[in-house]
Structures are given as C-alpha cells and as structure tokens.
C-alpha cells in the first residue's frame, strides 16, 4: 500500500579481521499496488449490510473492527463523498420508515408516548452504533467540510426532526401526551417520569422543546388559575398557604425531575402568579388577622416566604400595620382595662416581636411598620398612655414589688422603655414619673436605688441629659439631706430633741411642688423643727425652710387598752390621733378646727384610721360606705387590737389623689403653652413674616408633642395681644415679628 | 389612749430669703438659678444692693461689667453690695 520509495544505505566498519564492506539495498516495488475495481462497491455492500442489520436490530456478520477498517480504507482512498451520500440516504429512509409506522397509530396516547419513545431510543442507539463504524468519515470528511455537512449524529437528529415535522400529528400528539401526563400527576396520579424525562430530552435534542414549553406554561397557567380561585374559596387560609407551598415545591421538583432546567424559572413564576400574587389581597383579608390573633408562627412564616416570592411584602406590611393598629386601638380605648393596659401592651409587643423574629425573619419593612403602628395608636389618646407608663414604672420600682429579682426588673423596665419610645407626650411621662419618684424617695418606698438609677440612665440615653437633669437632682438632694442629717445627729442639738427626727431638705425647683399646708402643730413638734431650723441656718445662711407636711410621716407609740403598738402613720394622722390623747370623741369639724388641716386631707387620712383592718377610730352610727360628713362623730376604738406589733396606716400617703393627678396634668399643659410660645417667637424671630399655615407646619415639626391647632391659634393670639407679633396690615393671613 | 411620737420623717424645701420672687435681670425665680447655671444652690446665690434690690449674683455682675455706670438696673441708684446679706 505504501508507495513511497525508500532507500536506506547502512554502512558499517567491521571489527578486527573484517574490513570488507556490506551494503543493504531496499528496492521499490516494481508495480504500484492497485485497489480492485470493485473495491468501493464491495466495501459499501459490506457496510450497507451492517447498517441494515443494525437497523433491524440483528447482529452484524462482520466485526466492528473490520467495518471500521473498511470505512477507514474508503476514506483513505478519498471516496468519502460518495460514502457520505449513501449513508445519508440510508439514515433518511430508515428514519422515515420508523416514524411512518407511528403516524396512523391509534389507541391511547400513553401507548403512543411509549412507542415514540422506543422509536427515539432505537433511533439514537442505532445512530451511535453507525457513528462508531463511520467514525473515520466524521473525523475527516465532515470536519473538513463542516460548513456544509452535518455530522452523522446530527444527520440522524435532522431527519428525525424532519419527519416529525412532516407529520405534524406526531409532534402534536407528543405534546398532548406529555401535558396530559403532567396534568395527571398534578391531580395526584403516579406517572412514568423516566418516560417523561426521555421524551423531554428528545424534544430538547431536536430543538423543538420551545413549542412544548410554551404550551406547557399556558396549560399550567390555566390549571392554577382555576385552582387558585377554587381552592381559595373552599379552604381556610392556613390550608391554602400550605397547599400553595406544596404546589411550589412540587413544580420545582417536577422541573428538576423531567423538564429542561430552563423551564424552572418561568414555571415557578406562573405558579407564584396564579396561586399567590393573584390571591394576595384575598389571603390577607380572609385570614391574616386570625393567624395573628392565634399566633400561628408556622403559618405566618409560610405566608411570609410565599409573599416574599412575589414581592408582596408591601401588602403584608399594610395588613400587619393595620392589624396592630386595630388591636392597639381597641386596647387603648377600653377604659375598663386601663389598669392592665401597659402590661397588655408589653405582652402584645412581645408577641409581635416574636412573630417578627420567627416568622418574618426580622424584615426591616415590617419592623418599621410595627414601630409606626405602635406610635400611631398609642398617641391616639393624647396623654393617658404616657401617664400609665409612668405609673407602671412606679408600680415596678416600689418596694411593694419585692417579688421581682433585679434582673427581671431590668427586663421589664427595658420593655417599658420601648413603649415609652413610642409616645409623643414625653413631658407627661416626666411629670408623672417625677411625682411618683418623689413619693418613693421621700417615703422610703423605693425597691432599690440601683434600679432607680438604672431607669434614670435609660431615660437619659433615650431623651438626653436635659430630660433627666431634674430627676438626677432629686437623687442629689436626697444624698445631701442624708449627709446633713448625719452631721445633725452628731450635734448637741439632736440629743436635746428626744425623738428620732429626720428631715429631707429639698431644692424647691427640683421637686413637684406641694400645696403649702397650714397646720397647727403641737408645741413640742414646733420645737423639734425649730431646733433643726437653727442648725440649718447656721450651716446655710440666707435660706429659709418651708415645711412640706403633706408628705412627712411618723412612727408613733400608742398605748391601746388592749396593748402597745407602733403605728406607721402620716404626720396628719399623727396630729389627728394626738387629739385623742385628751378626749375620746370629736366631730370632723372639731378636728379640722384644732388641727387646721385641710378638710379633704382630714377625710383622706381618717379613712386609713377608720379602715376595717386598722379601725383605731370608729365613726358613730354610719355605714362604712357612706362618705364622711363634717358633723360625723369620730370616736376612739377602745377595743382596738391587731395581730401585728407594727401597723402601717399611712399607705394613703403614697397613693395619688385625683387632685394631684389633675395638678400634674395642668402643670404639663401650662408647660406646653410656654413651649409653644417660645417656639412661635423663635420661628418668627428668624423668619420675620410668615403666613398662618407655614407657621403651623413649622410648629408641628419643632414641637416634641402633638399640639392641637386650636391651642396653637390661641397662643398666637395671646402673643399678638402681648405685642410680640402683629398682623400684616395688607394681608391678615400673615403674621409679622415685632421688635 | 396615749400616743407618743418616736420617729418623725419630715420634709422641707429651702428657699432664698428674698422678698422679691424673681431676679429683675433674668426674670427667673430665685428658687431657680440664673440662666447660665444649671442647678440652684450656693453656687448661684442672690445678692443685695444697698438699695435693697436683689439679683442673682451672676446676673448683676454681668450687668455691672457691661456698663460704665455702676447703677442698680431697677432704681438707678449707685450700686453697692450690701455687706450683710440681711
């Protein structure tokens, strides 16, 4: 075969005694070897029979090796063009034949799917075998001419596609069959997913998958449109959510199992659109509030993750906020639950936080919505919540609340502070907090000074130093007083008194002002105070002391006929009881005349002494429930007894009276007026002239509380009266700043 | 019955011994401090002139420092501190 001419001359010099040269000559063939004339035809016949055996699934007579060589030989004789054409023709015919068999196939569609799948499998496996025989052709001829020629594999696919499209019934039936199967699976039947996988692969290989995909997506859309409507109507929201999630997973799974990977995204999108997006408002209106009420963490997580798929967090936010507002509003407006309101709000907040964390993965939009909604409803009832928050803090910081550990207390206070953050009327809170703090400090009712200080520092970080300045000064006053008392106790004056006198000297401006009390003290009482006053004046000249008898309290030893007792009483109660040292009955009017205590205060303090548990005094001839009258006779209870040695009667003192409450509220209102005045003047001084509406908007942004427009208007008028402002003579809507 | 007091926890507030309620310069009550101070107390006491007008010490000093004539801002008498504050 090799027609190259080679001439090799090998010369070698021999060893000792062999000097002569030897030459090896290789000569050319005399004649070039020729292929036989029938070489091409013989070869082809050999190959053709092989092809046919393959196509008929029979064993070939020749070995693969032999066939391969035949092709190789044909190729080296450069006979490939013919060979290629012949092969192509064979593939063409065979494909047509096998597909034609399917054209008039009747019977059910599943059988058809199996048949066509089989046909496809055969076709491809045959193609693989043929290709391995004709590999040489593929590697030489086709590669050299790859612009015009298809590889053997591609030829196979080409003709398969060609005939499939030529008999459009086939493709249609394949598509219908696939879709029917999928529908079946969606309805819960089992189907042969290997078959599906194989057919889908066929469509992909033939590049006619797109047509199927389109139809599939349209079908899916239809299917879920119906299901989305119906399932929603027939089921509760949690079931619907669960179902939807299952559907999404199912379709995802389907796309992995037998669809082309590129279908996954549009498929899931269709499901999401029909099952979730279209029903967002339905889901929210039908079942969201229930889920919230029942704290269904799991269902809410599901809802959240589904909504997140379709970008419906905004809608969720509206519903979430709406729910909070609705619940909060009804809590706030329920006057009967005022006592537990703050506790309830803290619990609500805890619950919502829990949902946010576990179900809504702390989505910032929703976290913000929570804050916004709380701020909205908690400020609906202007000042009340602020007052209640202060009272709640008081109840927790009081010594009567000893059950709670420091750590628990800290937790509660932190939660309370979050509510505090929401309220606008921080000044109201401050006023009430101050009032209660004053009582706790002066009456030694504070559970723990550490807790008090920690609360103050919390408020400080929340509202700044100026907010807590006064409160901190109160602590300083107490400390100063304690120092003062220590040096007083060391002095000679103290030993001359004979009772344990403790005096708090406060800076008037730091403490909530008490109404001045004009009481008639017994002589010895006055002397005690005088001793202290003298001591004080020596230390601090130029100062005078005003006594706040309303908050002072005493321990007195009482010799009752049935035993001695120590009584913890208010100063006023002491004064009242002192009257009974001489006489055993008085009318209220007489008591008032001799003690000069205000009548309301007398009544309040008497209540403690007339109480059924501590009935040191008795009211003659009247029911306990009837209100006290001036002419009621109050007599000493000679039969008084009590199981305890020390009896606390002065709890009345630490309670807030309606009058005090009103005073605190009034003080806040008064303070706000000054703030409004100051803000108006500040703005006008800066802007010189401003129309009414602009001034109002400026004020709303500057003021820390939410003022009523009427009040603002009144303040503007008052400022005009006081000639800080004037009206523009040309435009009555414009105010001008007067200098 | 006989009752005897053994312990008395009394409360009082201290005030400057001033007849006027507020300082004529800053218009703040004497119970509060002048505008430059934060807390009332010995750091911000009231002072009297021989004319018996009282001001926050800080306020009148500021006034005197900013004026050529050393006059009481209330009555224009020549300002002299009253040595004994009573």
TrEMBL record, chain A:
<dbReference type="InterPro" id="IPR059120">
    <property type="entry name" value="Cullin-like_AB"/>
</dbReference>
<dbReference type="Pfam" id="PF26557">
    <property type="entry name" value="Cullin_AB"/>
</dbReference>
<dbReference type="InterPro" id="IPR045093">
    <property type="entry name" value="Cullin"/>
</dbReference>
<dbReference type="InterPro" id="IPR019559">
    <property type="entry name" value="Cullin_neddylation_domain"/>
</dbReference>
<protein>
    <submittedName>
        <fullName>Cullin</fullName>
    </submittedName>
</protein>
<comment type="pathway">
    <text>Protein modification; protein ubiquitination.</text>
</comment>
<keyword id="KW-0832">Ubl conjugation</keyword>
<dbReference type="Pfam" id="PF10557">
    <property type="entry name" value="Cullin_Nedd8"/>
</dbReference>
<dbReference type="InterPro" id="IPR036317">
    <property type="entry name" value="Cullin_homology_sf"/>
</dbReference>
<dbReference type="InterPro" id="IPR001373">
    <property type="entry name" value="Cullin_N"/>
</dbReference>
<dbReference type="InterPro" id="IPR036390">
    <property type="entry name" value="WH_DNA-bd_sf"/>
</dbReference>
<dbReference type="Pfam" id="PF00888">
    <property type="entry name" value="Cullin"/>
</dbReference>
<dbReference type="InterPro" id="IPR016157">
    <property type="entry name" value="Cullin_CS"/>
</dbReference>
<keyword id="KW-1017">Isopeptide bond</keyword>
<keyword id="KW-0833">Ubl conjugation pathway</keyword>
<dbReference type="GO" id="GO:0031625">
    <property type="term" value="F:ubiquitin protein ligase binding"/>
</dbReference>
<feature type="domain" description="Cullin family profile">
    <location>
        <begin position="384"/>
        <end position="610"/>
    </location>
</feature>
<dbReference type="InterPro" id="IPR036388">
    <property type="entry name" value="WH-like_DNA-bd_sf"/>
</dbReference>
<dbReference type="GO" id="GO:0016567">
    <property type="term" value="P:protein ubiquitination"/>
</dbReference>
<dbReference type="InterPro" id="IPR016159">
    <property type="entry name" value="Cullin_repeat-like_dom_sf"/>
</dbReference>
<dbReference type="InterPro" id="IPR016158">
    <property type="entry name" value="Cullin_homology"/>
</dbReference>
<dbReference type="GO" id="GO:0031461">
    <property type="term" value="C:cullin-RING ubiquitin ligase complex"/>
</dbReference>
From TrEMBL, chain B:
<dbReference type="GO" id="GO:0097602">
    <property type="term" value="F:cullin family protein binding"/>
</dbReference>
<keyword id="KW-0131">Cell cycle</keyword>
<keyword id="KW-0498">Mitosis</keyword>
<dbReference type="InterPro" id="IPR051031">
    <property type="entry name" value="RING-box_E3_Ubiquitin_Ligase"/>
</dbReference>
<dbReference type="InterPro" id="IPR024991">
    <property type="entry name" value="RING-H2_APC11"/>
</dbReference>
<dbReference type="GO" id="GO:0031145">
    <property type="term" value="P:anaphase-promoting complex-dependent catabolic process"/>
</dbReference>
<dbReference type="InterPro" id="IPR013083">
    <property type="entry name" value="Znf_RING/FYVE/PHD"/>
</dbReference>
<protein>
    <recommendedName>
        <fullName>Anaphase-promoting complex subunit 11</fullName>
    </recommendedName>
</protein>
<dbReference type="GO" id="GO:0008270">
    <property type="term" value="F:zinc ion binding"/>
</dbReference>
<keyword id="KW-0539">Nucleus</keyword>
<feature type="domain" description="RING-type">
    <location>
        <begin position="34"/>
        <end position="76"/>
    </location>
</feature>
<keyword id="KW-0479">Metal-binding</keyword>
<dbReference type="GO" id="GO:0061630">
    <property type="term" value="F:ubiquitin protein ligase activity"/>
</dbReference>
<dbReference type="Pfam" id="PF12861">
    <property type="entry name" value="zf-ANAPC11"/>
</dbReference>
<keyword id="KW-0132">Cell division</keyword>
<comment type="pathway">
    <text>Protein modification; protein ubiquitination.</text>
</comment>
<dbReference type="GO" id="GO:0005680">
    <property type="term" value="C:anaphase-promoting complex"/>
</dbReference>
<keyword id="KW-0862">Zinc</keyword>
<comment type="similarity">
    <text>Belongs to the RING-box family.</text>
</comment>
<keyword id="KW-0833">Ubl conjugation pathway</keyword>
<dbReference type="GO" id="GO:0051301">
    <property type="term" value="P:cell division"/>
</dbReference>
<dbReference type="InterPro" id="IPR001841">
    <property type="entry name" value="Znf_RING"/>
</dbReference>
């Amino acid at each position: 075969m090799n027609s190259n001419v080679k001439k090799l001359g090998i010369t070698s010099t021999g060893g000792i005694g062999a000097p002569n040269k030897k030459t090896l000559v290789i000569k050319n063939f005399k004649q070039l070897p020729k292929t036989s004339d029938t070489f091409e035809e013989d070869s082809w016949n050999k190959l053709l029979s092989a092809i046919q055996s393959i196509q008929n699934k029979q064993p070939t007579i020749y070995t693969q090796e032999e066939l391969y060589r035949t092709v190789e030989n044909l190729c080296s004789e450069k006979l490939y063009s013919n060979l290629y054409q012949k092969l192509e023709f064979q593939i063409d015919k065979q494909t047509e034949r096998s597909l034609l068999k399917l054209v008039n196939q009747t019977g059910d569609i599943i059988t058809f799917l199996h048949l066509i799948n089989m046909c496809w499998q055969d076709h491809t496996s045959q193609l693989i075998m043929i290709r391995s025989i004709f590999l040489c052709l593929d590697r030489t001829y086709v590669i050299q001419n790859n612009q015009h020629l298809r590889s053997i594999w591609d030829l196979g696919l080409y003709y398969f596609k060609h005939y499939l499209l030529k008999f459009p019934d086939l493709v249609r039936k394949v598509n219908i069959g696939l879709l029917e199967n999928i529908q079946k699976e969606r309805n819960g039947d089992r189907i042969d997913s290997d078959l599906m996988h194989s057919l889908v692969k066929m469509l992909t290989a033939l590049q006619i998958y797109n047509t199927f995909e389109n139809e599939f997506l349209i079908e899916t859309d239809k299917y879920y449109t119906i299901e989305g409507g119906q399932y929603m109507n027939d089921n509760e929201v949690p079931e619907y959510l669960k179902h939807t999630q299952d559907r999404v997973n199912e379709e995802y799974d389907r796309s992995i199992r037998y669809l082309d990977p590129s279908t996954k995204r549009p498929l899931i999108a269709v499901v999401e659109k029909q099952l979730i997006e279209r029903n967002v408002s339905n889901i929210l209106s039908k079942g969201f509030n229930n889920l919230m009420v029942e704290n269904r963490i799991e269902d809410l997580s599901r809802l959240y993750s589904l909504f997140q798929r379709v970008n419906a967090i905004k809608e969720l936010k509206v519903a979430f906020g709406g729910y909070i507002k609705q619940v909060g509003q009804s809590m706030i407006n329920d006057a009967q639950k005022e006592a537990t309101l703050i506790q309830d709000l803290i619990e609500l907040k805890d619950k919502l936080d829990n949902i946010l964390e576990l179900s809504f993965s702390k989505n910032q939009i929703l976290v913000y919505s929570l804050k916004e909604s709380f701020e909205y409803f908690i400020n609906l009832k202007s000042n009340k919540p602020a007052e209640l928050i202060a009272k709640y803090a008081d109840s927790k910081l009081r010594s009567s609340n000893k059950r709670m550990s420091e750590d628990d207390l800290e937790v509660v206070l932190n939660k309370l502070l979050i509510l505090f953050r929401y309220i606008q009327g921080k000044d109201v809170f401050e006023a009430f907090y101050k009032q209660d703090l004053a009582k706790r400090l002066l009456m030694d009712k504070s559970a723990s000074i550490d807790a008090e200080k920690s609360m103050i520092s919390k408020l400080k970080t929340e509202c700044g130093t100026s907010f807590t300045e006064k409160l901190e000064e109160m602590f300083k006053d107490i400390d100063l007083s304690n120092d003062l008392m220590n040096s007083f106790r060391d002095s000679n004056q103290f030993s001359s008194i004979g009772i344990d006198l403790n005096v708090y000297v406060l800076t008037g401006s730091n403490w909530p002002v008490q109404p001045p009390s004009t009481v008639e003290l017994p002589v010895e009482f006055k002397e005690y105070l005088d001793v202290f006053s003298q001591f004080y004046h020596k230390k601090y000249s130029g100062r005078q002391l005003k006594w706040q008898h309303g908050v002072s309290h005493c321990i007195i030893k009482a010799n009752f006929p049935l035993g001695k007792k120590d009584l913890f009483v208010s100063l006023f109660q002491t004064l009242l009881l002192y009257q009974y040292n001489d006489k055993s009955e008085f009318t209220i009017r007489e008591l008032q005349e001799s003690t000069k205590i205000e009548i309301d205060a007398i009544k309040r303090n008497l209540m403690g002494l007339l109480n059924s548990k501590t009935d040191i005094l008795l009211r003659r001839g009247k029911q306990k429930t009837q209100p006290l009258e001036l002419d009621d006779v109050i007599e000493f209870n000679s039969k008084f007894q009590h199981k305890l040695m020390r009896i606390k009667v002065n709890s009345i003192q630490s309670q807030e009276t309606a009058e005090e409450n009103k005073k605190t509220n009034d003080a806040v209102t008064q303070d706000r007026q000054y703030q409004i005045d100051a803000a108006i003047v500040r703005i006008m001084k800066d802007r010189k002239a401003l129309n009414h509406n602009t001034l109002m908007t400026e004020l709303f942004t500057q003021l820390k509380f939410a003022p009523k427009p009427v009040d603002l208007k009144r303040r503007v008028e008052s400022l005009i009266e006081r000639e800080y402002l004037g009206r523009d003579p040309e435009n009555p809507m414009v105010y001008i700043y007067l200098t | 019955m006989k009752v005897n007091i053994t312990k008395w926890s009394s409360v009082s507030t201290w005030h400057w011994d001033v007849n006027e309620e507020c300082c004529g310069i800053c218009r703040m009550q004497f119970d509060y401090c002048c505008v430059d101070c934060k807390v009332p107390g010995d750091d911000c006491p009231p002072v009297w002139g021989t004319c018996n007008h009282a001001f926050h010490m800080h306020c009148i000093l500021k006034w005197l420092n900013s004026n050529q004539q050393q006059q009481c801002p209330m009555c224009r008498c020549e300002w002299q501190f009253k040595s004994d504050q009573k």
